[in-house]
């Protein structure tokens, strides 16, 4: 499978996750988000940047609990940070946030 974007073909697996996270761009994120029916806000982009920065440092997708902690620290959501993550990405952290951020599908993960 693949995403056709700006005269480029970007390989995806059968679930739509990028095969090579290095092929990701902000334009790819916008394209995937539009397919998911998500209009990316500053908070979406903050989460996406956090996911990408973690990947750049560790070469794996960040666990949702760290993203929830990030939301709390960055935006002060406290106990509501978990719920807010799912307001931003209603079909789930792995299904939407990881895909939009250009991650490979995580093998195992915590939903927070």
TrEMBL record:
GO terms classed as biological process: tRNA wobble position uridine thiolation
EC number: 2.8.1.-
Primary location recorded for the protein, binned into one broad class: cytoplasm
A GO cellular component annotation in the UniProt record: cytoplasm
Enzyme superclass (EC): transferase
Keywords, alphabetical: Cytoplasm, Transferase
Pfam entry (one): DsrC
Cellular location(s): Cytoplasm
Species the sequence originates in: Thioalkalivibrio nitratireducens (strain DSM 14787 / UNIQEM 213 / ALEN2)
Family: Belongs to the dsrC/tusE family.
Function description: Part of a sulfur-relay system.
Record's keyword annotation contains Transferase: yes
Protein name in UniProt: Sulfurtransferase
Keyword Membrane included in the entry's annotation: no
GO terms of molecular function: sulfur carrier activity; transferase activity
InterPro entries assigned: DsrC-like_C, DsrC-like_dom_sf, DsrC-like_N, DsrC/TusE
């Amino acid at each position: 499978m693949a995403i056709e974007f700006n005269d480029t073909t970007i390989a995806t697996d059968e679930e739509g996750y990028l095969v090579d996270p290095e092929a990701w761009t902000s334009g790819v994120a916008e394209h995937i988000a539009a397919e998911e029916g998500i209009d990316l806000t500053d908070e979406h982009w903050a989460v996406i940047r956090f996911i990408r920065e973690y990947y750049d440092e560790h070469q794996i997708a960040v666990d949702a609990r760290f993203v929830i902690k990030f939301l709390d620290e960055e935006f002060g959501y406290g106990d509501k940070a978990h719920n807010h993550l799912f307001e931003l990405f209603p079909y789930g952290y792995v299904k939407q946030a990881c895909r939009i951020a250009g991650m490979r599908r995580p093998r195992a993960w915590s939903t927070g």
